[in-house]
Specification:
heterotrimer; A mainly alpha; B alpha/beta; C alpha+beta; A: two-stranded antiparallel sheet; 3 helices; C: 3 domains; three-stranded antiparallel β-sheet; 39% helix; binds magnesium ion; binds zinc ion
């Protein structure tokens, strides 16, 4: 089942990439052959999924406190700051 | 011989004989950048050698995905414009600790997410072998810099062939170690489970030296392997003849005739001149690996690149009225087409239970299939030999990463060696080795390199600039 | 409510009291200046990688063991992906698919008996930053400010089975849970500071039914009282809807503490499916029996076991044992005092009446016992030795000990409270009291024992309460030998 324009738009919204109609069509056209190929090649595989490529286990650090970044450096790359904080426009629950 | 264009080892030897100083070595490479603009560097940050060490005075270029403290780092993306890391990649510290001189940050496709250097966002990079042609990607800038004699070696991330493909196009040696051999801390990635820190140089010997400096466990990267590597080329040669897996079938399916011929020449000569044993093997899963790698990379990208939202650093859309608008416009304006497409693909395949199972989970199963199949192959052969990439720059038939991607999928070391010219442009041959066998791989590549006799620079190769 | 039964499940987030954050070495102290406990890792800067704090992992296992859970032998971390400005990487590292602890229970008292509330899972994840809103509410605010000090503090999520049947049960469960987490010392569990937070899922069904009704999720429950009030409100609201034949909407509701109501929150734009997958930056964890055994060995005696021991070892009534073990501080305090003053029941009485009064005055977020064990031992010894009487101890000395932190002996000295236990000092006073009350003396001599109290009282009055009443009693009895 190919990805529709509407579906593409909805997918975009999830990751805050709002797509125009034209873009939705273009990206759907880009994805569909990939998914088609995936359908064809991946179907029926039964092996255990390989979740971790690393064979290592239990890499842990001890609970030791280090020196945090100076506040000026924390904020140095921010587009907008106020009162020692990162400032953003209002947050609408949506 | 001029300094710019020398291999790492030649520079070390030249300095050792007192022929030039580290400062002169760096200056020679900077002059070359000035004199021949191939668009390799996004920015220069020349730092002279910090002292004695294995790489004292060797000018090294870094892909712009590698964070250097206090130097703007963009990973080739508009969304990171203006980002100046207050920290640096673990590997930068190691290079500096070994006395290397860091030249600058090289161009790459956005976050390294395309193997076609024409997709790069900020500037075009030329293949120094023939201006106007593409050097291959994603680490096209790093390869162009070394090929043009603007750095003796380069370090860049490889997620599917990003270092080996441009190495093949630019007549260089491109190498990826076993997954976890070199710390990824401070290397901007899009698909961490596939990313290995790759190396570019003129000779296998240079690669060995760089790897010895960079390899080792890093508490900042949980996936780094324990132990260090040393004297990789000094160890004894293999007592028995090496068994090389060749897969003649894949050439019919994927590769262009001339590229095939170049690779075939290598194995025929290896059999005749070196006495290596040729074993025909089957790689029936190349397309499966290609699609699985792409889906996994897309899924991880949709998550790993979600942090670029305009709040804490990087590009931010102007005058957004609320947070929703800030997120959406920052990301719409900051990311390029390729990255958007891959993130959408990744979001789609993780986006609900059915898609997760049909695509993402199946891709992880395919990853098992490929890993196991390669694991089984090591019972029969010591290495697998393929062309590095199926076609010449600009001519697309099969996906360019069809031969390089499987080693990323399985976390294996691999090397691309220049093996000849097709239409006057270099092509490479790739050797893939079992996990943890970088030493054997480099020693075999070293032998093969001498047999092939491909001159390591354009000048040496007669392709006068 | 007679016709409906409530079905409640809780989801509790608890900040662990490690020194450093879960994936970096930044400190975790509460109340630091904004954005001063951050580094490239917890800010999610590009290319940085996480490294797991061993203690955070072990604390989670501790919580699981204390809640009778199974411990996973193989586990890993997932990325839970969603966008919010307080989430630096736009994913939370969590454990969707492989929780460290699962299938446990916590026993809570219900009426005369007890019941088990199932624990579905206890998993480890990372805390998010804080947004400070410039306005009354998040919606009125013209802009928001972000502080990432909190981002990356280790957090455990405890999810119960839907086994809770009333608002009261929910509150009792939470109190029990907090008690245990404090016992094992993995969190300070301060709801005010947000180090313990609770969301509740609630649905109603006809009594006797085994099917589930449509549930709502209630957020912003910032105190035990809020949990109870919000659930009571929501039970009534849902019952009202159902009685009227109207549907309960499956929605998230916000508890408004001031108005005492739950309000529907606007539905989330983002899919509630979080696109979880294993975080490739972290390697899996294998837990051996030895490791789990070692962590188990570090567990202190848990409240239930301690309660039973208090009954057996100190001969305390069930009720006393229950109250004393309801917090680790109090149980520790009791045992320390008994070490110095070996009369468990007297010590228990003092703690349960006098000391608890001071603890309760501090409210829900009690900081602990407001005096030292040695202080109480000394006070009890002063009473026993006849230096002061019980009333003086309760009304004058103890308040001063709590307020000024002074030792009882010092207070007694400063206030001149020593009892007069010297017969030579009392001789004259006793004589003059007897002389002044000939009628009463007559009554006593005639056999009326109870007038003795009056005579002793007169002596105490004359000495401003300092006379040792036992001694005075003896002296009068001696003088008026019948
Ligand atoms: Mg949670
Ligand atoms: Zn930090």
């Amino acid at each position: 089942m190919p990805v529709t324009k509407e579906e593409m738009k909805r997918i975009g919204e999830i990751i805050y990439l709002d797509l125009t109609d034209e873009e939705s069509v273009r990206f759907a056209d880009l994805l569909n052959p990939v998914l088609e190929k995936a359908d064809e090649l991946l179907d029926g595989l039964r092996e255990e999924p390989l979740r971790h490529i690393s064979q290592l286990r239990n890499r842990l650090r001890e609970d030791e406190v280090g020196i945090p970044l100076p506040k000026e450096k924390v904020l140095a790359n921010a587009a907008e700051t106020q009162d020692g904080c990162f400032r953003v426009p209002r947050i609408l629950e949506d | 011989m001029t300094i710019a264009g020398m291999s790492v080892i030649e520079i070390l030897e030249g300095q050792g004989r007192g022929e030039f100083t580290p400062e002169e070595a760096l200056q020679a490479h900077l002059d070359k950048i000035e004199g021949e603009d191939v668009g390799a560097f996004l920015r220069l940050c020349p730092k002279t050698s910090s002292g004695p060490g294995l790489l004292q005075g060797v000018p090294v270029a870094l892909g712009d995905e590698i964070c250097m403290e206090g130097v703007e780092t963009t990973a080739g993306s508009r969304i990171l414009t203006g980002f100046v890391p207050p920290y640096q990649a673990a590997l930068v510290g190691k290079l500096q600790g070994a006395g290397a001189a860091l030249v600058g940050k090289t161009n790459l496709t956005e976050f390294g997410m395309s193997f076609d250097m024409d997709d790069a966002v900020f500037q075009r990079t030329q293949n120094p072998w023939r201006p106007g042609t593409n050097p291959g990607g994603a680490a096209g800038g790093a390869a162009a810099a070394v090929a043009a004699g603007q750095a003796a070696a380069a370090v860049a991330a490889d997620t599917g062939g990003d270092v080996r493909i441009p190495a093949s196009f630019c007549g260089l040696v491109g190498f990826v170690p076993t997954y976890g051999r070199v710390s990824r801390y401070g290397v901007i990635q899009h698909a961490p489970s596939l990313t290995q820190v790759g190396l570019l140089a003129r000779q296998v010997g240079d690669i060995a030296l760089l790897l010895e400096v960079l390899a080792g466990e890093d508490p900042q990267d949980a996936t780094t392997l324990p132990g260090t590597l040393s004297d990789l080329l000094a160890q004894a040669v293999e007592p028995k003849p090496l068994r090389i897996g060749i897969a003649p079938d894949i050439y019919r399916s994927f590769a262009g005739g001339d590229v095939c011929q170049a690779a075939a020449n290598v194995w025929q000569r290896a059999a005749e001149e070196l006495g290596w044993e040729l074993v025909e093997v089957d790689l029936p899963w190349l397309e499966l690996a290609q699609i699985a790698r792409r889906l996994i990379a897309a899924a991880e990208s949709s998550s790993t690149l979600a942090r670029y939202d305009g709040v804490r650093y990087g590009y931010r859309a102007e005058d957004a009225q609320d947070m929703r608008e800030l997120f959406s416009r920052t990301r719409a304006e900051g990311f390029g087409e390729v990255v958007k497409g891959e993130m959408l693909l990744g979001t789609y395949i993780l986006g609900d239970k059915a898609h997760y199972e049909a695509y993402y989970l199946q891709a992880l199963r395919a990853r098992s299939v490929v890993s196991k199949s390669l694991q089984d192959l090591w019972g029969e052969v010591d290495f697998v030999l393929t062309p590095t990439t199926p076609e010449l720059p600009g001519k697309r038939q099969a996906p360019p990463e069809i031969f390089t991607g499987p080693s990323n999928l399985a976390g294996l070391p691999a090397i691309s060696l220049p093996c000849g010219l097709v239409d006057g442009l270099p092509v490479g041959v790739q050797l893939v080795a079992p996990a943890g066998e970088e030493g054997r791989l480099l020693r075999a590549a070293h032998v093969l390199e001498r047999m092939i006799g491909f001159a390591s620079s354009r000048n040496g190769g007669g392709q006068g600039a | 409510m007679h016709d409906f039964e409530a079905v409640i499940g809780l989801e509790i987030h608890v900040e662990l009291s490690t020194d450093s954050k879960i994936f970096c070495s930044c400190p975790t102290a509460f109340g630091a200046e904004v954005n001063t406990q951050c580094c490239p890792i917890c800010l999610g800067l590009p290319g940085t990688l996480p490294a797991i704090n061993r203690k955070a992992l072990e604390y989670t296992v501790k919580a699981g063991l204390a809640l009778n859970c199974q411990i996973a032998r193989h586990t890993w971390f997932d990325r839970k992906n969603y966008f919010y400005p307080d989430l630096p990487k736009a994913y939370q590292v969590s454990q969707q698919d492989a929780p460290l602890c699962f299938d446990g229970y916590l026993e809570v008292p219900v009426g005369e008996g007890a019941k088990r509330v199932g624990i579905n899972r206890v998993h480890l994840e990372e805390e998010v930053g804080k947004s400070l809103h410039a306005g009354e509410t998040i919606i009125d605010a013209a802009y928001s400010l972000l502080d990432y000090n909190r981002a990356g503090i280790p957090l455990i999520e405890i999810v119960t089975e839907p086994d809770i049947r009333s608002a009261e049960e929910a509150q009792v469960f939470l109190e029990r849970l907090r008690n245990i987490l404090r016992y094992i010392d993995i969190s300070d569990c301060k709801m005010q500071e947000g180090s313990l937070r609770c969301d509740a899922n609630i649905s109603l069904r006809p009594k006797g039914s085994t099917e589930f009704g449509t549930k709502t999720e209630i957020k912003n429950l910032n105190s035990f009282r809020a949990v109870r009030r919000a659930l009571e409100y929501e039970i009534n609201r849902q019952a009202g809807l159902l009685r009227d034949g109207r549907p309960v909407e499956p929605e998230t509701r916000h508890w408004d503490e001031q108005k005492g109501v739950t309000i529907a929150m606007r539905s989330k734009r983002q899919a509630s499916y979080y696109r979880c997958f294993a975080d490739p930056d972290l390697v899996p964890i294998d837990l051996s029996d030895e490791w789990i055994g070692q962590i188990e060995g570090e567990l202190p005696e848990l409240p239930g076991a301690r309660r039973r021991r208090f009954i057996d070892e100190y001969g305390l009534p069930e009720y006393d044992a229950q109250v004393l073990t309801s917090s680790k501080e109090m149980a520790d305090f009791f045992e320390e005092v008994v070490q110095g003053y070996n009369d468990p029941k007297t010590v228990s009485n003092w703690i349960m009446t006098e000391i608890l009064r001071y603890v309760n005055e501090q409210g829900e977020e009690a900081e602990g016992i407001p005096l030292t064990a040695t202080g109480l031992v000394e006070l009890l010894q002063l009473i026993e030795g006849g230096v002061i009487n019980r009333n003086q101890a309760k009304e004058i000395v103890l308040p001063e000990m709590v307020a000024a932190g002074k030792s009882p002996r010092q207070i007694v000295k400063e206030k001149g409270l020593e009892q007069i236990s010297d017969t030579s000092q009392l001789e004259g006073i006793v004589a003059s009291v007897l002389e002044a009350n000939p009628d009463v003396v007559q009554d006593y001599l005639g056999g009326k024992d109870k007038v003795m109290g009056f005579l002793v009282g007169q002596v105490l009055k004359a000495t401003k309460g300092k006379a040792n009443p036992r001694l005075v009693n003896e002296m009068i009895r001696e003088k008026l030998k019948r």
